[in-house]
Specification:
Elements: E1 4-12, H1 17-31, E2 35-48, H2 52-61, E3 68-72, E4 83-89, H3 96-109, E5 116-127, H4 131-141, E6 147-153, H5 185-194, H6 211-223, H7 230-240, H8 242-245, H9 247-250, E7 252-253, H10 259-277, E8 294-295, E9 303-306, E10 311-319, H11 321-326, H12 328-344, E11 351-361, H13 383-399, E12 405-412, E13 421-431, E14 450-455, H14 465-468, H15 487-501, E15 509-512, H16 518-526, E16 531-535, H17 548-553, E17 559-564, H18 569-578, E18 583-590, E19 594-599, E20 602-608, H19 609-614, E21 620-621, H20 641-650, H21 658-661, E22 672-674, E23 677-678, E24 683-684, E25 687-690, E26 699-705, H22 715-733, E27 740-747, H23 754-774, E28 778-784, E29 788-792, E30 798-802, E31 806-815, E32 832-836, H24 847-855, H25 870-885, E33 891-894, H26 899-911, E34 914-918, H27 937-942, E35 949-953, H28 955-964, E36 970-977, E37 981-986, E38 989-995, H29 996-1003, H30 1005-1010
Parallel strand pairs: 7-21, 11-12, 16-19, 27-28, 34-37
Antiparallel strand pairs: 1-2, 1-3, 2-5, 4-5, 4-6, 8-9, 9-10, 10-13, 11-13, 14-17, 14-18, 15-17, 16-18, 19-20, 22-25, 23-24, 25-26, 26-31, 27-31, 29-30, 32-35, 32-36, 33-35, 34-36, 37-38
Helix pairs in contact: 5-6, 10-23, 12-13, 12-15, 22-23, 22-25, 26-29
Length: about 1000
């Protein structure tokens, strides 16, 4: 029986809840009132040898008979339709549902016959619409980079859709070509920027190699008296990319000879670790390691710290900004999938136990059309579409792998219009010692070990991902840089490796096939023993005729590279096969310090490890300071403080984002303690606590902080505020300052610009000062230095958009007793409310000033940005930590964006309890003072001075609480009430008088709008 193409159409018999959502969204496209009916049909296109009876059996399996019905090869419907719009993947794009359906068919029919499944959706539409309306709908439904749309006019009830499969067909290419580098500097620069010229006369895509880099490569191969092959040049480009080598942090800058990373980030951690090593270990860690809880920092896929005497926890946060701008879902799902593999790649393999996320988007109502090219054919996706895809991608990548998504945030600024920032993080858990007695964080490939690739297969997706992320996005940005992850494949691989192969001691080393694919993972691991020799034709492919250079650098997902001793290979192979994981020997680790790649008996790459890793030229970077000065915005006439509070609660950056949190499963693995949403009013928490080891009372705390707007005034204080807030959030939840580590993620722009470099230096110096000040070591980090967009607006005029310099600080630590965890919402009427810390006139770049600036349509954000005093704040945090341990605190919530008024509103909304607060003493000198010396009301309500915390305390605990806090700045400002009233007064005058139900409605209004 020959292969045949069959189609199974599955539709819901009754009302499909998805239909109303689509009709609503299409109304925003100018089609309001034109759409009469919509029906969504799921389509499975199957290529294989099946009888009619077998197809019927498959169809029944894919259909829920209670609510769905199916038809073969044609859509049967009783209603009259005008248009059919089919949306499916382009050839080669990962189709997760198709993969799962294929496995279902093989299991159902007990066969191993060749079968392929391709999924799509058909939208049947009726109404007063024309062909151009159908085109508008089709564009709203698909991303042309990864999907195709087919529009069919329905006549006489006949629905004609092409019966084709999106199969990849590649022409057979050459095994390699020589790239002539004995050319002019202009030609060298062109190769570095837009790529190698292939046989058809087209450029392959960016190498992200500047002229000095290209000259270094030219000189190297001139000494060897030969020209490099294409695979050698591509491999060097991946390895030397900013994304992989972090050259801006590594190079000398001004008089900082050792570079920013070694001097300030690693330098701070070294100082902190030496100091901690002098102190005794934490009570729950009897390992005898002393107070230095760091394990394997800056040297592995993730950073690790001691969790307790038996376990380590790891943390890593990555960015996936560039791919998420092109394909939001694909960019985000590969971001979270990749950082999951970073946990698996820590030591000999940590189990991913929690995911984190962070999104920086442009405002969802921004409808501007932007294009990457001057012909206006490469249209950028609108912010709302990007946000929807990114949120879904993080969900699919993490939760589909059985990992809880706990910690997250979202920020909005119109400067993220050209490129969003997408942060994805993973916490891993690993025993400190494995069953064979080996320390789990130690790994080393050995000479003679097999090089094994496990997991997914290699395709053209993900080519030039590392170099693409190291450049400005423009018309040359390659579509092949976009990938879509397959979380089911990764989950099978993760379980087989971390739960079985690791504890069986079947491999010596492991790492992620991330940026640069095999070219980077193999070459990085080879440094552990000497070199590597690869037979590239052995690499499993998604489809035939990929060229060798594509196989070598592809970043196709779900892959790990392992160093497996030959004596263990058969056992490892059998284990992987029994778990449905493909594992293949592709080479061998060798003693000679060279990276050698063969393809079908021909040597196509032979580069010394020294040149590959250390041959890139050093640059001397220079900075130039620029001081920005801003006016203060003015409060509009007849604009009340109450209305300002209402407006801020509706603003994207201070409103709740439950619409995101509710989409993510935080309960999977059953360890959640302090949830992403808390209290009956369901407010977003600033920190989350979970139990990675279920039979223990020790918990892990996660939190993060970023203040992009502060960088408009001072990146030094921006960084300090982010560190202070991350620390403060963790302490509020019940963490210990002595067992808290932090991570940095720098997302910068125009990083060759001297003024941007000056801002970077200020931020990094601040990281040093405040991490050392708080004793919180950096254990991991990542930078993304070229978050710029150059394109064209809707009128065809050139436009450049750069993100604001953004630093995300994440914190991970240990809560010694999860039953003493503190949540942020008010708990009981009658509890006393305290404000800890000093309040200063620091409204610069605050949410309040930004609100006023928008009202007057100005850029007036003031200059008094919050400045952190870590010596004073540290005393507050240490005292609060003791009060929480003694269970004296009912609730604790950090004062951050929006200031005291927003913080009190959130605490009230969370508990659905009122409060009666006086701000008369807010802002007075710590030693006391008269009301006349108090700061203005707007400062008291909305200043974002760091180091402040609102706590509620039961009256019976108030005396003991005040005794612990006696040497710290604090003010007793009011009480929690049961009367649903939210009242703020000054000197008995009511400044804000409202009710909690109204605040609750306002706080959730943005989320309700986004659902």
């Amino acid at each position: 029986m020959p292969d045949m193409i069959s189609r199974i159409y599955v539709s819901q018999g009754g009302t499909d809840s998805r239909e109303n959502a689509y009709v609503k969204s299409w109304g925003g496209l100018g089609l309001s009132g034109k759409i009469k009916n919509v029906s969504i049909v799921d389509c499975y296109t199957i290529l294989g040898k099946f009888s009619k009876q077998e197809l019927g059996k498959i169809s029944e399996t894919l259909t829920n008979p209670q609510i769905e019905k199916y038809s073969l090869n044609k859509i049967t419907t009783e209603k009259k339709w005008d248009y059919a719009v089919e949306i499916g993947f382009l050839p080669g794009v990962t189709d997760n549902v198709g993969h799962t359906t294929r496995e279902t068919i093989l299991d159902l029919l007990h066969t191993k016959s060749d079968v392929s499944v391709y999924t799509s959706k058909v939208f049947l539409i009726s109404g007063n619409i024309k062909k151009e309306d159908a085109n508008t709908i089709a564009f709203s439904l698909h991303n042309p980079l990864i999907e195709k749309s087919t529009i069919s006019r329905i006549k006489n009830g006949k629905i004609s859709l092409p019966l084709k499969v999106p199969k990849v067909v590649l022409k057979k290419g050459t095994s390699f070509i020589r790239v002539p580098l004995n050319v002019s500097d202009k030609k060298l620069e062109e190769i570095g920027k837009v790529g190698i010229l292939d046989g058809s006369g087209k450029r392959r895509g960016p190498l992200a190699l500047t002229l000095p880099y290209m000259k270094a490569i030219q000189n190297h191969f001139a000494k060897l008296q030969r020209q490099p092959t294409d695979i050698e040049l591509e491999s060097i480009a991946q390895t030397w990319s900013e994304h992989c080598k972090h050259t801006i942090f590594a190079n000398s800058i001004d008089d900082i000879k050792e570079g920013l990373y070694k001097t300030y980030i690693k330098g701070a951690t070294n100082i902190i670790r030496k100091e901690k090593a002098k102190r005794p270990a934490r009570p729950h860690d009897s390992s005898g390691a002393g107070g230095d809880f760091c394990v394997s920092v800056f040297s592995d896929n993730s950073g690790g710290i001691v969790f307790d005497k038996d376990f380590l926890i790891t943390h890593k946060v990555e960015t996936h900004n560039s791919p998420s701008a092109l394909d939001p879902f694909g960019g985000a799902i590969t971001g979270i999938g990749g950082v999951n593999r970073d946990a698996m790649g820590f030591g000999l393999g940590a189990k991913p136990v929690a995911n984190t996320y962070g999104f920086c988007f442009s405002y969802p109502d921004d409808k501007r059309a932007l294009f990457r090219d001057s012909k206006m054919t490469q249209r950028m996706l609108p912010p709302a579409r990007i946000a929807k895809g990114v949120i879904k991608g993080i969900n699919s990548g993490g939760n589909c792998s059985g990992i809880p998504t706990l910690n997250g945030f979202v920020k909005y600024d119109d400067r993220y219009r050209g490129k969003p920032l997408v942060f994805a993080g993973t916490v891993g858990l690993i025993p400190r010692t494995l069953p064979n007695g080996k320390l789990s964080h130690q790994k080393k490939a050995k000479v003679g070990d097999y090089i094994v690739m496990a997991g997914g297969r290699v395709g053209a997706d993900g080519i030039h991902g590392a170099t693409f992320s190291s450049t400005t996005m423009d018309a040359t940005s390659p579509a092949t840089a976009v990938q879509i992850g397959d979380p089911i494949t990764q989950k099978k691989m993760s379980d087989a490796i971390v739960k079985e192969a690791r504890d069986m001691g079947l491999y010596n080393s492991i790492t992620d096939d991330g940026a640069g694919g095999l070219s980077c993972s193999v070459a990085e691991m080879a440094k552990e023993c000497g070199g590597a020799k690869v037979d590239l034709e052995k690499v499993p492919l998604k489809y035939a005729n990929l060229e060798p250079w594509q196989i070598w650098i592809s970043e196709s997902q779900e892959r790990m590279t392992l160093s497996v001793p030959k004596k263990n290979w058969k056992t490892f192979q059998n284990l992987m096969e029994s778990r449905g994981v493909e594992a293949t020997v592709i080479g061998e680790f060798i003693k000679s310090p060279r990276c050698i790649v063969n393809y079908k008996g021909k040597k196509i790459m032979d580069v010394s490890m020294e040149f590959l890793h250390n041959g890139l030229p050093k640059e001397q970077l220079q900075t130039q300071k620029v001081v920005q000065e801003y006016e203060k915005p003015k409060m509009p006439a007849k604009y009340s403080y109450a209305q300002a509070l209402y407006d801020l609660l509706k603003e994207e950056n201070t409103a709740g984002f439950s619409y995101i949190s509710e989409q993510y499963d935080h309960e999977v693995q059953a360890g959640s303690v302090l949830k992403p949403l808390s209290g009956s009013g369901r407010i977003n928490t600033d920190a989350q606590v979970f139990r990675p080891v279920l039979d223990r009372e020790v918990g892990a705390v996660l939190t993060s902080a970023t203040y992009p707007s502060y960088g408009d005034i001072s990146t030094y204080h921006m960084a300090g505020s982010a560190i202070d807030t991350a620390v403060r959030n963790a302490i509020c939840a019940g963490a210990s300052l002595d067992h808290l580590a932090i991570l940095d993620n720098f997302c910068w722009c125009s990083s060759k610009d001297k003024t941007r470099l000056a801002q970077l230096v200020d931020a990094v110096k601040s990281c040093y000062d405040y991490s050392v000040g708080y004793g919180t070591p950096f254990i991991s980090g990542k930078d993304s230095m070229f978050n710029d967009f150059k394109g064209y607006d809707e009128k065809g005029k050139p436009i450049a958009i750069s993100v604001p310099p953004t630093l995300l600080i994440s914190a991970v630590g240990v809560v010694s007793d999860i039953y003493k965890t503190v949540s942020p919402e008010f708990k009981h009427g009658g509890d006393m409310i305290y404000l800890l810390g000093e309040t200063k006139d620091e409204l610069g770049a605050s949410e309040f000033y930004k609100l006023l600036a928008r009202k007057e349509k100005s850029n007036n954000i003031g200059n008094d940005v919050p400045k952190v005093d870590f010596k004073k704040n540290k005393k507050v945090y240490q005292a609060l930590e003791q009060a929480i341990k003694r269970e004296l605190v009912a609730s604790a919530i950090s004062v951050s964006s929006g200031g005291l008024a927003i913080t009190l509103a959130k605490a009230s909304v969370g508990g659905m309890l009122g409060c009666n607060v006086s701000i008369a003493e807010v802002g007075l000198p710590p030693t006391g003072g008269s009301p006349t010396s108090a700061i203005p009301i707007d400062v008291k309500l909305f200043s974002e001075t760091q180091g402040r915390i609102v706590v509620s305390v039961s009256p019976k605990n108030a005396k003991a609480f005040e005794k612990i806090m006696k040497n710290t700045p604090r003010a007793k400002i009011g009480k929690v009430t049961n009367n649903n009233k939210f009242v703020i007064t000054e000197n008995k005058k009511k400044i804000i008088n409202t009710d909690v139900k109204k605040l609750h409605s306002l706080y959730h209004s943005f989320s309700n709008r986004m659902k």
